[in-house]
């Protein structure tokens, strides 16, 4: 499950490369949320899936939906649309495991995954170093896509805070329930919050073949597949271990870009990928009895 999740989640920036030139970010996302809900509802009805049973559970799922869909996706896609390069955006969001580990270490044995030990701190540090190696070459290219300003930096930092808070909040407050109904509640919350932002965007959606393809994969692969897997991973694993998987996303994205767009992968990139994999293995390795 973790390997499949990383592979699916890594395609997010590839989708942005196809979709963002032809659509404003919030219009794209509100259509994505709406289509995803329409896919989930017949599945829920046909399988007779139970909805959350209490008002508090609905509330907690709505909060995670706002953080992990509206906040995270909205921030990343808006940052890329505003000119930030995908490598820099990935690096900023890649700080999430460090923030998660710091928060867990402050709370101690609090029910969200427990304190972070010395081996895991070493893994988190190695993972971040490898992540920086993978995306570092993008800083020297000077292309328009690597532009940084106060607007896109604020979007990216907002995405980082949202995915970190959403992971911790879900692990702490959301009781286990069917992933289909849980994801649908999260998407409905994200839809209604994102809709006003989409209506304020003046740029129309240009429905080209690239945009249709980006939308189809965003709904079927990233939302129904990737978000559902993330929900299950958070429910079944420690928060720090799940967050550390995000370290593998930028290296995987680099490999996909090499396969799909013939972007060069240097020996420096390969070394960074190996270092990242080593760091993640240290974080998720079970403690010896």
Notes on the protein architecture:
The protein has 13 helices and no strands. The protein is an all-alpha fold and 289 residues long. It has one domain. Helix 3 crosses helix 10, helix 4 runs antiparallel to helix 8 and helix 6 packs across helix 8. The longest helix is centred in the last third of the chain and has 28 residues.
Question: Largest beta sheet, briefly?
Answer: none
Average pLDDT reading? 80
Question: Helical region count?
Answer: 13
Residue share in helices?
Answer: over 70%
> Shape from CA axes?
globular
Count of the separate structural domains:
1
Structural class computed from helices and strand pairing: mainly alpha
Number of DSSP E strands: 0
Order of helices and strands: HHHHHHHHHHHHH
Whole-angstrom Rg: 18 Å
Distance between the termini: 25 Å
Give the low-pLDDT segments. Answer: none
Report the β-strand fraction as a percent range.
under 5%
Element layout with pairings:
Layout: H1 2-9, H2 12-19, H3 25-47, H4 55-81, H5 86-93, H6 96-107, H7 118-135, H8 150-173, H9 179-200, H10 209-236, H11 239-244, H12 249-261, H13 267-284
């Amino acid at each position: 499950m973790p390997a499949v999740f990383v592979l699916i989640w890594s395609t997010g920036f590839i989708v942005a490369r196809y979709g963002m030139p032809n659509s404003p970010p919030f219009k794209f996302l509100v259509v994505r949320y709406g289509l995803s809900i329409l896919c989930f509802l017949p599945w829920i009805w046909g399988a007779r899936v139970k909805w959350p049973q209490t008002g508090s559970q609905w509330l907690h799922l709505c909060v995670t939906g706002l953080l992990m869909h509206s906040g995270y996706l909205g921030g990343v896609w808006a940052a890329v649309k505003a000119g930030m390069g995908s490598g820099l955006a990935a690096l900023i969001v890649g700080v999430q495991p460090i923030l998660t580990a710091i928060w867990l270490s402050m709370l101690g044995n609090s029910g969200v995954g427990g304190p972070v030990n010395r081996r895991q701190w070493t893994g988190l540090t190695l993972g971040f170093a490898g992540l920086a190696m993978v995306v570092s070459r993008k800083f020297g290219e000077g292309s328009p896509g690597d532009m940084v300003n106060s607007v896109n930096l604020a979007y990216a930092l907002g995405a980082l805070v949202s995915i970190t808070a959403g992971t911790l909040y879900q692990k702490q407050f959301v009781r286990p329930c069917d992933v289909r109904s849980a994801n649908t509640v999260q998407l409905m919350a994200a839809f209604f919050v994102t809709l006003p932002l989409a209506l304020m965007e003046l740029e129309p959606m240009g429905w080209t073949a690239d945009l249709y393809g980006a939308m189809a994969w965003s709904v079927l692969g990233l939302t129904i597949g990737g978000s559902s897997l993330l929900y299950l991973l958070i429910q079944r694993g420690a928060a720090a271990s799940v967050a550390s998987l995000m370290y593998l996303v930028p290296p995987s994205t680099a490999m996909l870009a090499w396969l799909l767009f013939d972007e060069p992968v240097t020996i420096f990139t390969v070394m960074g990928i190996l270092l990242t994999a080593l760091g993640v293995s240290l974080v998720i390795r079970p403690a010896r009895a």
